[in-house]
Amino acid sequence: MITNTELEYKGDLYPTKIVSFEHEVDSISFHTDNSVILKVTVLRDSLIRFRFTTKGYFSNDFSYAIDKSHSHGYNFLEISETADYYQIKTSKVQCRIQKADMRLSIFDLNENVILEDELGFHWEESYEYGGNIVKMSKASKDGECFYGLGDKATQLNLKGKRLENFATDQYAFQKDQEPLYKVVPFYIGLQNKRSYGIFFDNTFRTYFDFCHERRNVTSYWAEGGEMNYYFIYGPQMQDVVTTYTDLTGKPELPPLWALGYHQCKWSYYPESNVKEVTAKFRELKIPCDAIYLDIDYMEGFRCFTWNKEYFPDPKRMVSELAEDGFKTVVIIDPGIKIDKEYAVYKEALEKDYFCKRADGPYMKGKVWPGECNFPDYTNPAVREWWAGLFKELISEIGVKGVWNDMNEPAVMEVPNKTFPMDVRHDYDGNPCSHRKAHNIYGTQMARATYHGVKRFAYPKRPFIITRSAYSGAQRYTSSWTGDNVATWEHLWIANIQVQRMSLSGMGFTGSDIGGFAEQPSGELYARWIQLGVFHPFCRTHSSGDHGNQEPWAFDEEVIDITRKFVNLRYQLLPYLYTMFWQYIEEGIPMLKPLVYYDQEDIQTHYRNDEFVFGNQILVCPILEPNSLGRRMYIPRGHWYNYWTNEEVSGGKEIWVDTKFDQIPLFVKAGAVIPKYPVQQYVGELEFDELTLEIYYKEGKEKSVVYEDAQDGYDYKKGRYSFLSFQTTGKEKELIIQLHKEGKYDTRYSKYKIDLIGLPFIINTIEVDNVKISFDHKSFEDGNYLIVDKEFTELHIIGE
Fold first, then answer.
1. Do residue 615 and residue 579 come from a single domain?
2. Do residue 653 and residue 642 come from a single domain?
3. Which domain holds residue 179?
4. Based on the domain organization, do 644 and 562 belong to the same domain?
5. 8 is a domain residue
6. 296 belongs to the catalytic site
7. CATH number, residue 350
8. Which range is the signal sequence, renumbered to this chain (predicted)?
9. If residue 229 lies in a helix (H) or strand (E), which one and from where to where?
10. How far apart are CA 312 and CA 235, in angstroms?
11. If you compute the radius of gyration of the chain from its CA atoms, what whole number of angstroms results?
12. What is the pLDDT of residue 783?
């Protein structure tokens, strides 16, 4: 019998009236008479952090997500007080905190409400684990839309959805299934043509409800930890995404080969099978830059070992593959086999590097090698040790990339598929249970892997891929969407997942082309390749349980389509590399859903299929069998059909005819699209010309092209080439102006210019005010204009 009423379940608790506040530089702290503290920190004029505690003091402020190398600063900060509220004002927004109950409202400078609390912050004491279940509810306006949240297998617009964030191994997941492999507790709200963002930086299991339970209420909560969130104001979605990406960090440039086509399967072995696959790519002239080795390359699935029966001399094999243009990428999982004769296990045991249960024994679970222990990657010493284990793989054998899998962490034959929640973690000196560390375990493994590969690959750039990730993982690794299925529905899911990941700061992402589980038809594989070549990470991967999934596993028509679209990707590598450069320099997502591209056009708010690849190529995949066309939405402006060069006006839905070897592709009028010649792998060819496809537009349009040595770090010393093209189209004239920055001298000396959509017959061509002669007839027949790469202004004048 409970006699002390203080121990009775009290339900939700709320802040009471504010009794004091204090202001120190960029932070303002408000105290209530029931010991709640709200600390408001102004990081930028449009970026404000809200941090609550219910115990009268804050625990150590620590986050794996925030990029601490990035500095912040605001232009204006003013604190004022009325009878009812305190007001914090910056040059972009004003925030009001009610004195009676600490509820918040955020306005723009014209007094328009951007975001306001419904119940606001509240909490529930957790008697099972201690601490609090922390909750936040916000009022939502009619017509408000929601986007982001990373890897979710559902509609791009999250309105009406309830979602869960708990990194989970979901083999053959379904549409709308929750939760999945990645945790990105960041969303974008769009209402009345104004965008804002919320990043709830809490690594416990979290939930988001976008008007699902209550029509005009959005809420988010966590099973522990703090109510700690960042508010980001746009008003453009571009500004929200860029600010969030700056906050959580950006990667370094990958080597260009990492943006090529990759081939993977569970599993390619023995060596003769690997060589057979790579030779077939070269025979069929389908470009490919990387071949992957899944768990069967190891000795009994022990990480950092080789099966000597299957791969008797891995260094020689890797070297021979490299001579043929293939980079070898190998898988490394977190489970370390319990085997006293196994050097990695012995060393981790001696140094006490494995995760432990609450009562002291090591965490033990079954994975591919059998019973395993698991390193605690939240311990800096363990990460340093783990990084050192890559010396042999990278610097001695010559492996070029590492693929981290099963790092949710996944554990077999247990009901919850992962560690028990009582497992303890160092958490960089902030000891905690697995409840707090679970969602960042995979990221910290990828972080340790990244530092190891980078150390031993130097002076080349590292390449890492991970299955599980938390916000900020993009600083260390690329990712893929996990164990999908060879179905048309999963093709639809893949399209949305990669768009959403791009919006959520993790741009270097792709799906398993063709589906990991089960077997695609030739038509499905072809349609998936046609989409996958427009994803930043481009890899076919499949389970060997369901048959072969190389391009030649299908008929000649599918082989030809695969070659055609992989060739197109290799031609577009300078365009893709430029997209990546803009992502790491400016936080601009590489794939842009239509709502990001034009949030003021309400017709974009619920579009799922179409996206803008880079800044100027519109892609719309074919997502149904037996399709010879589809309806799609063309954004506002003028666009050219890539296949026919027909110009169309946007802001409307149209029918687009397509053949089996095409998908709807459109190029923005005025664009300058750079293209390389087709190569079987990056660096295969020396070439003296860069092709520029220039699409006529009446008016002005800017395009950029970034290039460097394609690997290494000289680009950080200014050895890069950044070209800015400005096209100006008039009734009978096209002017192309070129400005170059950077100290890198590209190996080619000329531009091969293809003019598309000119509305006039060419009379005169001037390069830097000097007329040049050209064969009018051959130009009309499709020959190109060749100009020196040092030109600064090109005039095409009509008759």
1. no
2. yes
3. 18-247
4. no
5. no
6. no
7. 3.20.20.80
8. none
9. strand 227-233
10. 59
11. 28
12. 62
Q: What is the pLDDT of residues 638-675, one digit of tens each?
A: 999 999 999 999 999 999 999 999 999 999 999 999 99
pLDDT at 6 over 80: no
pLDDT of residue 779: 61
Question: Which helix (H) or strand (E) segment is 29 a member of?
Answer: strand 27-32
Count of domains forming the chain: 4
**Set 144, 201, 333, 408: catalytic member:** 408
First-last CA distance in the chain: 98
Indicate whether 569 belongs to any domain.
yes
The CATH number linked to 656 is 2.60.40.1180
| Per-residue model confidence as pLDDT tens digits over 356-396 | 999 999 999 999 999 999 999 999 999 999 999 999 999 99
In a domain, 562, yes or no: yes
Report phi then psi at 224, rounded to 5: 180, -175
Residue entry with tokens 């839309």: 145
Query: What are 673's strand-pairing partners?
Result: 693
Residue labelled with tokens 């969030």: 244
Q: Which amino acid is residue 92, in one-letter code?
A: K
Cα separation, 274 vs 422, whole angstroms: 42
Catalytic residue check, 586: no
Q: Which of 96-105, 426-435, 541-550, 692-701 has the lowest mean pLDDT?
A: 541-550
The answer to whether the beta carbons of residues 177 and 489 sit under 8 Å apart is: no
| Predicted structure pTM score | 0.97
Whether residue 766 sits in one domain with residue 692: yes
Catalytic-role residue among 223, 483, 708, 711: 483
Catalytic: which of 151, 405, 426, 711? 405
**pLDDT (tens digit, 9 = 90+) per residue, 22-48?**
999 999 999 999 999 999 999 999 999
| Nearest alpha carbon to residue 577 among 789, 259, 280 | 259
pLDDT tens, 585-620? 999 999 999 999 999 999 999 999 999 999 999 999
Q: Which two tokens stand for residue 710?
A: 């394609």
DSSP per-residue codes, 569-631: HHHTHHHHHHHHHHHHHH---SEEEHHHH-TT-GGGTT--S-EEETTTEEE----STT-SEEE
Give the pLDDT band (50/70/90) at residue 3.
Answer: very low
- 743: helix, strand or coil: coil
Q: For residues 756 and 545, what is the distance between their CA atoms, to the nearest angstrom?
A: 48
- Burial bucket for residue 553 (CB in 10 Å: 0-12, 13-18, 19+): middle
Q: Is 33 a known active-site residue?
A: no
Cα–Cα nearest to 225, from 165, 297, 298, 163: 165
Does residue 413 sit in the same domain as residue 490?
yes
Examine the fold and report which residue of 642, 668, 694 is the final residue of a domain before the chain moves on.
Answer: 668
